[in-house]
UniProtKB/TrEMBL annotation:
Entry coiled-coil feature ranges: 381-408
Residues spanning the signal sequence: none
Compositionally biased spans, kind Basic and acidic residues: 1-30
Listed PANTHER family: MITOGEN-ACTIVATED KINASE KINASE KINASE
InterPro entries for this protein: Kinase-like_dom_sf, Prot_kinase_dom, Ser/Thr_kinase_AS, Ser_Thr_kinase
Record's compositionally biased regions (Polar residues): 37-48
Protein name per its UniProtKB record: Serine/threonine protein kinase
């Protein structure tokens, strides 16, 4: 009995940690021929008389090979506890499951064993070592146990004990032998459960909700995966340990996924009400809306909105039709809720249970039916022969349809994909059957295609666009496949790591001023192109050191009018620093001067060549506009000949940047000479003859210099 219990699978998660207690299996790495599928494995196997449902073991999806390293590390951590005894009472025998912060083990309760209990096993949830030193995570685990113990009900998972043993924080939960409703729904496809079989499950869920709601506790994440059905037909609700004042926050133990962009973290959007999706505090109506979705899914094996959140479904005007297994008289209970997304004020667990179990068979209906039967008996008799002929023809047609269906379902795994993709007239049920029959093969084929892309030598990095296209195709086949979801997350993580690696290489070059290509090293522009190939318009962010180094080089080049440096820096700036406010002004100046800079660079390059170029006058005026403005300003502000003397020296030095006789320099010297003459007149009026003569001489010297330079040019 003990060995049997240990092999049973459990899918147990409590109020925070999304740890699933499951039996693991070896991952499929290769494409194998599809195994025979028991066609009787459906909801018809349910014993609808005593509501005990056949058990099917849950298994965690195979671990993707890219996670081998992480799995190995995790197993090392887990194996350290196997064989240990916690609190001198709970002997750990094996690992059942992993979560974001906790691991769950199968443990034997020595006290129960010594008392002669037939089932001394419990599920032991243990905080992982790397989080044991963090007080807040330990408090989360303890608070979870306290909150779950508050709910004492046969349809809510029980927490027996919690505490600390050294550095091991743990809580002891009920060990459940059963399967989740999610698994039951999957194996009941495509027809779903019969109504009274569904009702036996729903009544127990309603009892648990009615009890919890009476205590003011709202589940806020009710979904098939959080409901377990035991092999005896009993229902257990999981994750019922967080009160409504806390559930609006993110699940305490649920690890964030990188691809999640919803604000409704902490609950499942596909089962969330408009109230939760809008970010409001959870209330009883949120659980009732999720219950409606579960009811629909049990009867039809389909989500009412095709796994679309209700707010988006209402925008898309998705219509919800009555499941075939739901009595017509019961459909009004749910139809308005699905069409509006709102829950009436009187729609609570007790009311719904009463309405779902009420029988509508008044005596008058039976009497009227009997009278109609007698009245029509004669007419029916006369039409029997015609009806029999019609039925025989229809039966023949149905037999032909069945034979064709059996022929299609016998298609080999290798040819099933081409049949599914190529035959648009293929009946949806046949397509669903092929997908179910050959699921291991088809998933393995998609995985092999992804491996081929990852291992391709055609490019330096994997073609992530092609991989994502393959994953999208796979999701079209199996939208609810956990294996595909895990694989997609692995690919996204790999892509993100690759992008970060390239971005770090670019920043390393920028920080070291490696703006030009060096031997045996990719240039910053080649690396940027690789970024865009992997992710178009990737938002590269330069490091602060890269920005500081670039800013200094750009300022120095502008100050020194270094044409060669400016050309290089303009390209770097326009490629990597266009979004930087720090360099915006200097880049605008540099871009405005770009043509002038290029002309000046060409001139300087050709100076020593056999074909020198003429001096770019217009470009020089643009590049040195600020210097000319500054010299003219000093000329205007000069109040003595001493000021003019200093100005003349600076003009002489500045003129070295231009050819002899440059007109703008001559104009500046001419106006300086005129200012000397003005000072000479003023000095004569003040009877300072010597100073006046000196000023006049300097004016004459400037005029002679202008004349000489003009002749040389």
């Amino acid at each position: 009995m003990e060995e049997k219990n240990k092999d049973k699978s459990i899918n147990s998660s409590d109020s925070g940690d999304k740890t699933k207690i499951v039996k693991t299996q070896k991952r499929e790495n290769a494409i194998e021929p599809a195994k025979n599928v028991n066609k009787q494995d459906s909801a018809e196997n349910i014993n609808e008389t005593d509501t005990k449902l056949s058990q099917k073991e849950n298994t965690i999806p195979p671990i993707n090979k890219s996670d081998n390293k992480n799995t190995k590390n995790k197993s090392v951590i887990n194996s350290n506890l196997i064989g240990q005894t916690v609190k001198n009472r709970y002997e750990i025998e094996s690992i059942l499951g992993h979560g974001g912060l906790c691991d769950v083990y199968l443990a034997k309760d020595k006290i129960l064993e010594s008392s002669g209990s037939e089932s001394p096993y419990v599920a032991l949830k243990v905080l992982q070592k790397e989080f044991a030193s963090q007080p807040e995570t330990a408090r989360m685990l303890i608070r979870e146990a306290q909150q779950t113990q508050r709910l004492s009900h046969p349809n809510v998972i029980r927490v027996f004990d919690f505490g600390v043993d050294g550095d091991i924080y743990f809580l002891v939960m009920e060990y459940i032998d059963g399967e989740t409703l999610e698994s039951l729904i999957q194996r009941s496809r495509p027809n779903g459960l019969k109504y009274h079989a569904m009702l036996s499950i729903l009544n127990q869920i309603l009892d648990a909700l009615s009890y919890a709601h009476s205590l003011g506790v709202v589940h806020a994440d009710l979904k098939p995966a959080n409901v377990i059905l035991t092999s005896e037909g009993h229902v257990k609700l999981l994750d019922f340990g967080v009160s409504k004042t806390h559930q609006i926050k993110q699940d305490q133990y649920a690890a964030k996924r990188k691809t999640e962009d919803l604000e409704t973290l902490g609950y499942t959007p596909n089962y969330a009400s408009l109230n939760l999706l809008s970010g409001k505090e959870p209330n009883i109506s949120d659980d009732m809306f999720a219950l409606c979705c579960i009811t629909y899914e049990l009867l039809s094996c389909k989500h009412p909105y095709s796994r679309t959140p209700v707010n988006e479904a209402l925008k898309k005007n998705i219509k919800v039709s009555k499941p075939a297994n739901m009595p017509i008289a019961k459909w009004p209970i749910f139809s308005k809720i699905f069409s509006t997304g709102t829950i009436p004020a009187d729609f609570n667990a007790k009311t719904v249970k009463r309405r779902l179990n009420k029988q509508y068979w008044p005596l008058a209906t039976g009497v009227a039916a009997s009278l109609l039967f007698v009245a029509g008996l004669g007419l029916i008799y006369n039409q029997q022969q015609v009806a029999i002929s019609d039925l025989e023809a229809k039966l023949s047609q149905q037999n032909e349809v069945i034979q064709n269906a059996e022929l299609l379902l016998s298609t080999s795994p290798e040819h099933s994909r081409s049949l599914i993709d190529g035959d648009a007239s293929l009946h949806p049920l046949i397509k669903a059957g092929l997908l179910r029959l050959h699921k291991p093969y088809l998933l393995g084929q998609f995985e092999s295609e992804i491996d081929d892309v990852l291992n391709s030598d055609a490019t330096s990095y994997p073609n992530y666009d092609e991989i994502e296209a393959i994953l999208q195709k796979a999701k079209g086949y199996y939208p609810d496949s956990h294996k595909i979801e895990v694989l997609a997350l692995d690919i996204q993580s790999s892509k993100h790591s690759t992008l970060l690696s390239i971005a770090r290489q670019i920043n390393s070059h920028l920080e070291k001023s490696r703006y030009d290509k060096e031997e045996d090293t990719k240039s910053i522009y080649e690396l940027k192109e690789e970024l865009n190939q992997i992710h178009q318009d990737y938002p590269f962010v330069p490091s602060s050191l890269s920005s500081d180094v670039f800013g200094k080089h750009l300022s120095d080049a502008l100050k020194d009018r270094d044409a060669a440096a400016l050309v290089t820096l303009i390209k770097v700036g326009n490629t990597f620093f266009t979004n930087s406010d720090e360099h915006k002004a200097n880049l605008e100046i540099s871009n405005a001067m770009k043509d002038a800079v290029l002309e000046m660079k060409l001139y300087e390059t050709a100076i020593d060549s056999s074909n020198p170029l003429p001096f770019p006058i217009d470009a020089a005026r643009i590049l040195y506009q600020d210097e000319f403005d500054g010299l003219y300003y000093r000329l205007k502000q000069a109040r003595t000949t001493v000021h003019l003397d200093k100005l003349v020296k600076d003009v002489d030095k500045f003129s070295e940047n231009f050819p002899v006789g440059f007109q703008d320099i001559n104009d500046l010297r001419f106006q300086t000479a005129d200012k000397y003459l003005q000072f000479s007149d003023i000095l004569l009026n003040k009877r300072k003859t010597t100073s006046a003569r000196r000023a006049m001489k300097k004016a004459n010297d400037l005029m002679k210099q202008i004349e000489q330079d003009s002749k040389q040019s």
